[in-house]
Amino acid sequence: MNVRTYNPSVRVGNWNEDIQLEEDTLKDFLEKRERGELSFQKRSKLSQMLFKPVNLSISRDGCVHYGDVVVLQCLGAQDRTNYTNDGPRNTCNLAVTPQASNLLQLTKLEGNCDVSGSTSTEPNLRSSFVIKGCEPNHVKGDKLCYGQDFFLCTMDGEGGDLYLQSDRTTLEKSAPRSRHQAVTFVSQPSALTKWRILYYDPRMRMENEDIPVPANSIVIISHMKTNQDLAVEESFLTRTPFGHREYEISANTYLDSHKAEKDVNRWMLVMGVPGDEICPIVPDSQ
């Protein structure tokens, strides 16, 4: 094995080849930097893309519609004294996470992508989703009602237009830590990508069937095929490729002693409403 024991300026052994190799390495580095192909440059561009702020849809009538851009938010635990991790569960948003294997090659989100609960509550490309209809009669702009099926999709363009999917747990396919029903984003719609909104109180669920879903209210998001509810696994944290620790997301119904869904199954479809922080009412200057 040839080991350099002298300063590079000392011409010993294959000194000409060593100098040429160092010059070629530096030239290759400079060319990659000019083209923006260095790893830290790719990582910076990806972070700028995924964490780019997104404007949510404005609900003029207080309801959710097909085609609206929303954030799915699960409020923090009401009981702040009982917890299993570093602290009680905090408010989190549903977020898409690209897999680490092809992270630096991405120019937009591509399936399959993982799902996690991000404690960053600012709307961005990771945490903003579009409500899309499953049937031809579900026209963009129509109100989404309790019990109607829908697709939950990422944004178009850089968002990749991916569909939230889940399927029954098997020995080979489940959530990594909780072992519950896994939730992922895929590129093609199917029967596994259909979801529905349920009224949060099971005692009034039948009475609210086919009633428009109000924006910014507590709801249950249920998977059509398996009848399991979207859930935040508060006991299991996962580390994303960005270095963040986020909650694992699964499809699993947690019931209390009254057969009602627990807080980890309760979500809000966050939108802008005239007069709030997202869409403030500007007073007349006259």
Automatic annotation (TrEMBL):
Q: Which PANTHER family match?
A: CILIA- AND FLAGELLA-ASSOCIATED PROTEIN 161
Specify the protein name.
Cilia-and flagella-associated protein 161
Report any Pfam family annotated for this entry. Answer: CFAP161
Any single Gene Ontology cellular-component annotation:
motile cilium
Provide the species name: Mizuhopecten yessoensis (Japanese scallop)
**GO aspect biological process, one term:** cilium assembly
